[in-house]
Protein 1
Amino acid sequence: MNARENECNGGSLGIFIYFSVIFSDIYLYMKKATQFMHSPTLNTVLMVERALTEAKELLKVAELKRRLPRQVMHGTLVQILEYLQQSGKILFTPKGVVWIYRPPHELEAMKKGGREL
């Protein structure tokens, strides 16, 4: 094997090792990131929805936590509240949380009983 062949083989080996290290670092980073990220279960989302619809008033997040039948981690609760706000079911403000969603049949009834402009 001459010097040129040795340089090429060593160079490709070096590149292989370099990319192996980079990909293993990326893998470990993604593994750590996915360990901390999880989504709330449907039962938990429905439990929060039920508590908000029954409240019929503005609630602080701490008060909402007290009214829930099971304990929910703060991060999980905030994630649920952000989802409900994006879907148009609640208003989530610094003063509190309030349920605003009305089903279509209720909206139709409100239209019939209202004034036409």
Protein 2
Amino acid sequence: MNEQKQSLEALQDIKRMMERSSKFISLSGWSGISAGVCALIGAWLASKELSLWYIYSSGYDSYRSLLTKLILIGVGTFAGAFLSALLFTALRSKKPKCRFGAALLQGSYGICLFL
């Protein structure tokens, strides 16, 4: 009887762990939507810069300026997408009363910032 009770408790522990981990295997849908919006905004800004550069380009200094602007747009796009994903993951982790760090560890970012 004791052995059967231990087996039942072990199965219940496994079930609880599976339920907790499956809640944060991926980021929320809002994280994906916000990342897509950030990407669209970044692409729009980059296309505007490229079209202005094409019209008004004047040599190597112009190219360096364009490259700097495009890198800044890329960094800003990544930062916006990353921060919005963190925000929506944090909001999602509050619903089932799970720690934010655990949500990030089990999410697709694979990092733990706020344990």
